[in-house]
Design goal:
Low-confidence stretches: none
Number of strands: 2
Mean pLDDT: 83
Shape: rod-shaped
Order of helices and strands: EEH
Oligomer: single chain
Length: 83
């Protein structure tokens, strides 16, 4: 039994040294999880940049193709005297 200071949490009486010891372990686990979350966030950002590139390049190509086709159609109509 703990002969030190006790802390009451709800209906539970816990030894302060027990809480301190487990708090230190909790901080270590929290630090490790924080590092994993930061690495995951970095990987997600890299993946997002790749997805944006994959999406943007074809979209721009289709837009350019569409503008070219509209120009061709306009020239065809103007050559035939259709306004």
């Amino acid at each position: 039994m703990c002969n030190q200071l006790f802390v009451y949490i709800g209906n539970h009486r816990l030894c302060a040294s027990y809480i301190i010891a487990h708090s230190a372990a909790f901080v270590d686990v929290a630090d490790e999880l924080s590092e994993k979350i930061n690495r995951l966030a970095e990987q997600l950002n890299i993946s997002l940049q790749k997805i944006q590139t994959i999406h943007t390049e074809p979209t721009n190509a289709v837009d350019m193709w569409g503008q070219t086709q509209i120009g061709i159609i306009k020239r065809m109509f103007s050559l035939n005297g259709i306004q």
